[in-house]
Design a protein that fits this description.
There is one protein chain. The protein is α+β, with helices and mostly antiparallel strands. Among the domains are: 212 residues, no CATH class; 105 residues, no CATH class. Strands 1-13-12-11-10-9-8-5-6 form a nine-stranded antiparallel sheet. Strands 4-20-7-19-18-14 form a six-stranded mixed sheet, with helices on both faces. The longest helix is centred in the N-terminal third of the chain and has 18 residues. It starts with a strand and ends with a strand.
Length: 483
Amino acid sequence: MDVTSDATAGRTAATLALADTRTDCPDEAGRPDGGRPATAPPTPRTPPDAPTTAVASGAPATSATSAASSASATSAASSASGVADPVEPSQAGPRVCGSPAEPAQRQSRQPRPVVTELRLSAFGPHRSAVFPLGPLTLFAGPSGSGKSQALAAYEALAVLASGATLEEAFPDPRARIPDRAVPDAQRRRGFRLGCTVDGPAGPVRLDLAVQAEPTLRIVGERLSQDGQILLATALRDPGRRSVQAAWLTGGAIGVTRAPLPDDRLGTALLPLRVAGSTAGQRKVLTAAEQVVVALRAVFPCDPRPDRMRAAVPPGEGRLLGDCTNLADVLRRTRSECGTRHAMLAQAARTGCAGPVEGLGVRTPAGGGPVAAVLDRGPGRPATELARLGAGELRFLALALVLLTGPGVLAMDPAAELLSARQALTVLADGFDRGLDPRQNAELLRLALLSCGRGHIRLVAAVGEATATAARDLPGVAMVDLKA
């Protein structure tokens, strides 16, 4: 492993001085390096502490025209000077209303690592956008306002934290390039995103700059806490498929430098690279592990009723993201999770048409595919789920997700921490798609119940009808976007 220690930096610097990754981050026009030459190294300095301020309830929304005008001005300045000062996430953004994302008095005592803020500095239609995330956060807005893009950014960070490559996290990276992005002299364009993870170690920031054109690669990553940079990477040689990384070591060494792959999240690789023998290394490991644990505990869910009607072979009983194996999961919950299965049956009485006494499963005598049924009560024939409407199937699947946990969902949470110390985050784009008001109200009730206990969080995109009903509910944080 090509690792060298920078002893001189440790002896002469009073504070940690790492490469400023903003010089290799896409600016507001989507240029990965802010207009600088590809080989120009970033200026080593200790960056000022500039924490992002969440948009407060009742703050005015920034119009799309104003955002576009600001972005055009920034791009023009970049082209004229050749050096741009990338805009950090600021208060400019959508209106956020409802309960606070995380009360300040709880942030320093957060028992489970959770993502409390999503930043889209330059991502799709979003520029300098800051989204505070609470236990139950709903994105609302007209078509094209960026609801799906925001959830896609969150999901991509989760995929990267699990060790996946950029191609796996961004299968269509050009769709994430900011609108009207102008390439630099090397014809490069990209995007920027990040998040804040709160937990036992306190708030930790992760910021990422990705080059989408001409090749997909990470050109800058920064992990910081309380204004101190713990890890920074920068693209030094475009001809090599690696970035130069530097992380805090402490003691006489100060900073450790080493190349890291340019297609994977460096933060997720730190536990394999850092020994943890010094106080500085332990601080880096604690912050990195907190971010990885929070991001890996994510379950993207989009039930597909057209694929949920057929009987399925018995398996592990872990629900897939499209919920096509719902019958097999109901078979498992009925035998292993009696209390939660009963709660799901109770919810079905509200969300399904006709009388419902319970949820059952039919299995052929000689084995084979299993089919779930609604028990209609004495003297009434049971109804197979295959005969239910699309809205009823989506309702049952989403209710099951909200009432269960990682052990019943097809996901791979971090093994470094007990499940009781992790908070599952459900991502649901089109959460209320195909549902009627009664079903929406019941799902919101279940979400508030589960999210209030602290072990499940929900980040979802909803339509205006659901948003209107949820705005006055205590415990729901609404993010209102504008096209």
